Amino acid sequence: MIRFLLCMAVAMLMLGCTSAPSNQVGAFAQSSLAISEQVDTVFDEFNNASLERQFTDVAANYKGDFAQRFNQQLLAQINAPLSAAKKRELAIYRANQSLSQYATALSELSNAAVSQDIDAASIELYGTLISFNAQYQLINGSESTLFDDESMATIQAAISAIGSEVVEQKKRRALKVIIISAGDRIDKVCNVIIEQLTNAGVADGIAASRKYVLLKQIEEYRLLSKKGSSKLKARTKEVKRLWQLQQALINTHSLVTASIDGVKEIQSAHKVLVAELTQDRYASVAITNAIGRLQHINTHFKALGTSLVESPSE
Amino acid sequence: MAENKTIRVGLIDAIDQMMRLSDVCDDPNQKFEINLKVRALYQMLDRVIVTTLQTTDADFEQALLALDELTQQAISATASVTMVAETITKAADAIGKIEKLVAGVVGILAI
After folding, report:
1. Do A208 and B42 touch (CB under 8 A)?
2. DSSP letter (8 states) at residue A251
3. Do A195 and B111 touch (CB under 8 A)?
4. I need a labelling partner for A160 at 20 to 30 A (CA). Which of A8, A27, A220, B99 fits?
5. Contact A57 B107 (CB under 8 A)
6. B109 touching A (Cβ < 8 Å)
7. Which residues of A238-247 are buried (b: 16+ CB within 10 A; e: fewer)?
8. Does the residue A13 lie in any domain?
9. Are A245 and A210 a contacting pair, CB within 8 Å?
């Protein structure tokens, strides 16, 4: 019995050792995916803040003598500035989609347990690299690509050659080929996202909309407070709500800054991964540290929480 | 995209001054008109943020100039309410110029 338990323990240890490298890549992929999803929320918030401003605008202006002018046409004019179709045209959206698809495919490959799954995940991952090319051409409006035909053929050949090795070895080889090949391209895709987030002024747009809503609600509070009948408790509650709106306004830029930091961290962690895999190191302190930094950024995003992503409601 | 930043900052400044003007304006009709212009300026801001503008266009310079004039006019009108009507006209002019600027742009947020 003792011998059996010892054998089991050794087997478990061996299993742990062989699966750990892929798990590290998987952890990188998962953290990258979470950050990539956060980048999308910046644009969702741009829409939300704009819509909230438009609702407030109509409600604030069509009152008293002007109430009769409120009609269906007015409601029809209220629109989110970024429709789903328009969003798909954004360079940042396209770049972020590429990054997210790459992270998802990487995660699938690192979790693949049997040979056929590895083949399927490798092909999918190869597909995301092809999609990098298409997106990059669209973003730049030129024929230049991230991968030339020759390098694509080399990657494809390397993946095909992985063949029928034992599962973990096969997985390692596939991860190595693809991650190293994607190195510079991930860097460029991340640069597109960083540049757009830095320069597009989305944070300014969100802040401007939030400021409008806050100012209109302060105006309304003044009217409420003028009434002799208003209770201190109700006024205090309202002041607290306005203060939360003010905090959300002050912290608007943090949401975008955190997104930029997150993408920079993906860039840096991927470089670490490439460097380590080039040396055939599938698990190392450097990779662990890089993943740790990614996870820290994710925690920071969560800490930013709803106070930044959503304005407090009444 | 520094070009967008300039128009963006111009719009934000103009909106701020127009809202101050709305605050001090006693005439309900004029106040309503100012608020409609603030709405239109915000709509332009939403559009400018997701658009890459060409600085080489003469339209770009004119829009920038019109925004600056609007901001200055709104500051003056805040001190002297007799200038409100003129400010509303200037706002319409600036909005028209930005609309012209963003209307034909293709390739949203493309680098």
Report:
1. yes
2. T
3. yes
4. A27
5. no
6. yes
7. beebbeebee
8. no
9. yes
The number of distinct structural domains making up chain A is 1
> Which of these, A176, A167, A174, lies nearest to A114 by C-alpha position?
A167
Compute the distance between CA of residue A48 and CA of residue B50 in angstroms, rounded to an integer: 15
Residue A275 CA to residue A287 CA, distance in Å, equals 10
Contact B84, B40 (CB under 8 A): no
A92 touches chain B (CB under 8 A): yes
A46 touches chain B (CB under 8 A): yes
H/E stretch holding B60: helix B58-79
Contacts of A125 (CB under 8 A, 6+ apart): A102, A105, A106, A108, A109, A174, A178
Query: Does B50 touch chain A if contact means CB atoms closer than 8 Å?
Result: yes
pTM of the entire predicted model: 0.79
**ipTM attached to this prediction:** 0.90
The model's pLDDT over A1-33, given as tens digits with 9 standing for 90+, comes to 555 444 444 444 333 334 445 678 888 888 888
Closest CA to A283 of A184, A176, A185: A176
Q: Would residue A8 count as lying in a domain?
A: no
Instruction: Give the separation between CA B72 and CA A192, rounded to whole angstroms.
Output: 37
Distance between CA atoms of residues A143 and A136, nearest Å = 9
DSSP-derived letter for residue B53 is P
Task: For residue range A148-200, list pLDDT tens digits in order.
Answer: 666 666 666 666 655 555 667 777 888 888 888 888 888 888 988 898 888 87
Torsion sign over Cα A225, B14, A90, A200: negative
Packing angle, helices B28-49 and B84-103, rounded to 10: 20
Q: Please tell me whether residue B20 adopts helix, strand or coil conformation.
A: helix
Instruction: Dump the DSSP string for A270-301.
Output: HHHHHHHHHTT-SS-HHHHHHHHHHHHHHHHH
In a domain, A6, yes or no: no
**Is residue A271 assigned to a domain?**
yes
